[in-house]
Amino acid sequence: MYVSLKDIQQARAVLAGVIHPTPLQFSQTFSHISGNKVYLKPENLQKTGSFKIRGAYNKIINLSEEEKARGVVAFSAGNHGAGTAYAAQMANISATVVMPENPVPSKKRAITEQYGARAIEHGTDSIAMFRKALELHEEEGLAMIHPFDDPYTIAGQGTISLEILEELPELDAIIVPVSGGGLISGVAAAAKELKPSIKIIGVNTEGATAMYSSLQAGQPVEVEKVETIADGLMAKKPGELTFAHTQKYVDDLVLVSEEKIADAVAFLAERAKLVVEPSGAAAIAALLNHHTGIKNKNVAVMVSGGNISFELYQSLIQKYNERNYAGVK
Fold this sequence. Notes:
Layout: H1 5-15, E1 25-27, H2 28-34, E2 37-42, H3 52-61, H4 65-70, E3 72-75, H5 79-90, E4 95-99, H6 105-114, E5 118-121, H7 126-140, E6 143-144, H8 151-167, E7 173-177, H9 182-194, E8 199-205, H10 210-217, H11 240-249, E9 252-256, H12 258-272, H13 278-288, E10 298-303, H14 310-325
Parallel strand pairs: 2-10, 3-4, 3-6, 4-5, 7-8, 7-10, 8-9
Antiparallel strand pairs: 1-2
Helix pairs in contact: 1-8, 3-5, 3-8, 5-6, 8-9, 9-11, 12-13, 12-14
């Protein structure tokens, strides 16, 4: 049932030469604030601007020739869609991406113009998009490239831990943003198999608590409402597979506020010189605001994506400056 270390190692072999290396970046500033030695894993610098290419490519490469000939379908607010479209383009197969109504323009443009996929806007949440993707899967025979609840997707994301622990074997903890759970499932499975003592901490935003609520309930549950600035963390319900992995491997899952995430986007620009979207800033926001309970440890923090509209980015930085530098000349 669980994705194994061998599965993740096989995914790494598949991804060799396909993805960018994203070496850890030590931050003196974040270390001082949090009371730890903090290393950022900058997957915002990955191909397509997020970690999602890892899982999407691993899944697509493992399809049968018949499935590849029919094409693939994904549902996504943007990052998984871009990863799927890019991977499909590399494999020379057609891709369709179901996106929310009124998607982030830059994300839709990358999917259609840069990576040549068909984009269909439908619904406003992950459940509605999934149903539309399922409809296309059934009507057109397109292979489903699930953003999180798939063993190949999880294995692809788990390659991140192999890289982190090779670079920093003395690591004590990894902090990971959580939506449907594909990223933390792979990261936790690989890290715990390689180093059982390592702590894995997940982060939900207060506006999207699907995994947090599910862990509280002891089973996957659908949350009534999702309202978050972090469009990459908008899953309304985790998968059966990702929930099982999270239950087995993850030590804790904490919540962080929308405001703290917004501030972290600006703070990452100011201090780390990284362009990061809100979902990519959730993990560092939790650490810097002392939600994780981690002190005096070597900590890797996932910076999961950097696909943010200029309008939102400008707005977040402006508001951050107004709150922190009002009256400063």
